[in-house]
């Protein structure tokens, strides 16, 4: 009897353990399912929140069309289609898109000057995307909205492509924060849609550096102008990295243009390249330390907006600038500088 009683007790304990384990497993399964539902709900909430933020950003953004340097249409960025007849633009022609920086808008002097130069030299349709409402706040707030703005601008370009605009006839320009946006948008579109050419001016560094980004993936031809060491990026991964002034870190003309600084001078210099020759040095200046590949520069090579991109000239290009407007050096001055460097 005692033996039977012990065996009976062990059997009861074993059965109870099985029941408990079964209940525990069921509870685990129940909580696992609950956690999965909560995670899924969180993902959905995040997606809904992202869509709302994107909607709010697009709601305040404006898409402004220019034809022959005349503003023809201004509309909300949230539109899925644009009235091309009202804009005077044709989907079969070239198009250019301009993206501004922090505390800027499409009405800034440099933006209107660039639109005028693009209209004259490039022709076709020029579009400025104005997100000045978001850009008018603190830089940190603008930076935290970077992905939202990237998604919104990508949506605008996709809407244009849907209407027949061909990325092979497309051009993007971005200054400072807008330069980072131009690259990110191009990389968002890649590989399904490849923008033909992208130019950036002193792409913003704060908040973005030192994270390595391959900006060359943004478009077929990507050239980036560098002009400052305090606001510009140190990531030189474009097809061409044009180092203006002193090693791309400082402009001599900052002495007479304190309100612009070396950073702000970049876009002024870029606009001047349409009308004045900015000659590149044939070799890296001895004072400019670099571990990046230097481009092989043909004699008399000038930099700036380029309609027919020369794929043979890639890498770092050093372009000295002068103290006074229009900030370029003559061939004679360049020769003297090269002789002194030698």
Output the keywords.
342 residues, alpha/beta, Rossmann fold, 9 strands, globular, TAG_lipase, secreted, serine hydrolase activity, lipase activity
Shape: globular
Q: Order of strands across the biggest sheet?
A: 2-1-4-3-5-6-7-8-9
Q: Outline the biggest β-sheet.
A: 9 strands, mixed
In CATH, what is the homologous superfamily?
Answer: Alpha/Beta hydrolase fold, catalytic domain
- Highest CATH level, the class: Alpha Beta
Q: How many angstroms does the end-to-end distance come to?
A: 109 Å
Q: Averaged pLDDT, please?
A: 86
> Roughly what percent helix?
40-55%
Give the total of domains.
1
Question: How many individual helices?
Answer: 9
CATH architecture: 3-Layer(aba) Sandwich
Order of helices and strands: HEEHEHEHHHEHEEEHEH
Q: Could you walk me through the main structural features you see in this protein, from its secondary elements to its overall organization?
A:
This protein has 342 residues and is of the alpha/beta class. It has a single domain, classed as 3-Layer(aba) Sandwich (Rossmann fold). The protein has nine helices and nine strands. The chain has helices at residues 2-60, 84-87, 109-121, 132-135, 139-144, 146-162, 177-189, 261-272, 331-341, and strands at residues 62-67, 70-76, 95-99, 125-130, 170-175, 195-201, 219-226, 240-244, 315-319. The chain has a nine-stranded mixed β-sheet, sandwiched between helices. Helix 1 (2-60) packs across helix 6. The radius of gyration is 28 Å and the shape is globular.
Compile the SSE list and pairings:
Blueprint: H1 2-60, E1 62-67, E2 70-76, H2 84-87, E3 95-99, H3 109-121, E4 125-130, H4 132-135, H5 139-144, H6 146-162, E5 170-175, H7 177-189, E6 195-201, E7 219-226, E8 240-244, H8 261-272, E9 315-319, H9 331-341
Domain Lipase: 48-210
Keywords: Secreted, Signal
InterPro entries: AB_hydrolase_fold (IPR029058), Lipase (IPR013818), TAG_lipase (IPR000734)
């Amino acid at each position: 009897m005692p033996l039977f009683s012990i065996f009976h007790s062990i059997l009861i304990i074993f059965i109870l353990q099985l029941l408990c384990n079964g209940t525990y497993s069921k509870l685990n399964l129940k909580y696992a399912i609950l956690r999965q539902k909560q995670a899924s709900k969180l993902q959905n909430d995040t997606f809904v929140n992202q869509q709302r933020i994107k909607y709010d950003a697009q709601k305040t953004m404006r898409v402004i069309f220019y034809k022959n340097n005349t503003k023809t249409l201004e509309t909300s960025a949230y539109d899925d289609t644009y009235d091309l007849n009202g804009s005077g633009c044709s989907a079969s022609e070239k198009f250019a898109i301009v993206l501004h920086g922090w505390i800027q808008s499409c009405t800034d002097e440099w933006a209107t000057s660039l639109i005028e130069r693009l209209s004259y030299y490039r022709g076709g349709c020029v579009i400025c995307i104005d997100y000045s409402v978001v850009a008018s706040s603190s830089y940190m707030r603008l930076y935290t909205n970077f992905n939202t703005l990237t998604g919104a601008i990508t949506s605008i370009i996709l809407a244009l492509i849907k209407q027949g605009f061909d990325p092979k006839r497309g051009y993007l320009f971005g200054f400072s924060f807008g330069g980072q946006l131009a690259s990110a948008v191009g990389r968002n579109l890649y590989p399904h849609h490849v923008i033909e050419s992208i130019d950036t001016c002193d792409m913003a560094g704060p908040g973005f550096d030192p994270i390595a980004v391959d900006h060359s993936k943004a478009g077929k031809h990507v050239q980036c102008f560098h002009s400052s060491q305090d606001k510009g990026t140190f990531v030189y991964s474009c097809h061409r990295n044009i180092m203006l002034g002193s090693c791309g870190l400082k402009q001599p003309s900052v002495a007479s243009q304190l309100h612009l600084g070396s950073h702000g001078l970049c876009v002024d210099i870029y606009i001047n390249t349409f009308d004045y020759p900015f000659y590149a040095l044939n070799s890296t200046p001895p004072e400019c330390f670099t571990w990046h590949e230097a481009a092989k520069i043909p004699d008399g090579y000038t930099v700036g907006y380029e309609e027919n991109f020369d794929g043979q000239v890639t890498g770092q290009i050093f372009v000295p600038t002068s103290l006074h407007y229009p900030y370029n050096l003559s061939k004679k001055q360049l020769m003297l500088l090269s002789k002194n460097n030698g």
